[in-house]
Amino acid sequence: xxxxxxxxxxxxxxxxxxxxxxxxxxxxxxxxxxxxxxxxxxxxxxxxxxxxxxxxxxxxxxxxxxxxxxxxxxxxxxxxxxxxxxxxxxxxxxxxxxxxxxxxxxxxxxxxxxxxxxxxxxxxxxxxxxxxxxx
Length: 135
Fold this sequence. Notes:
By secondary structure, the chain is mainly alpha-helical. The protein has six helices and no strands. The protein has helices spanning 20-30, 35-42, 46-61, 90-100, 105-111, 116-134. α4 (90-100) packs across α6 and α5 crosses α6 (116-134).
């Protein structure tokens, strides 16, 4: 059986590094609600709540982790901050500039009425083009 986590230790943490959903679940957990109670309140399954709480704990336990790194490919987009982006398409330049400035895929997608998948695809293509150009 896994060890119990004392969620009260996160009471003074900077919760702004969490997604809204992670923050919501963590606050409810810190208030003493069970995962079943939280899942009913947030209208999702208990497994999702456990996953949200685990992600929140990982972020809060290691806040130095670079949030500009793509979670699947470990791409640090800030490496392109000083590069000439003229070889990229207009949207690739826009999305990459916004990602370098710290915006999330979701924020970029919402601002440009696009999908998170499209943002990820364009950023990955920009990454490949720049890596091939500068190698």
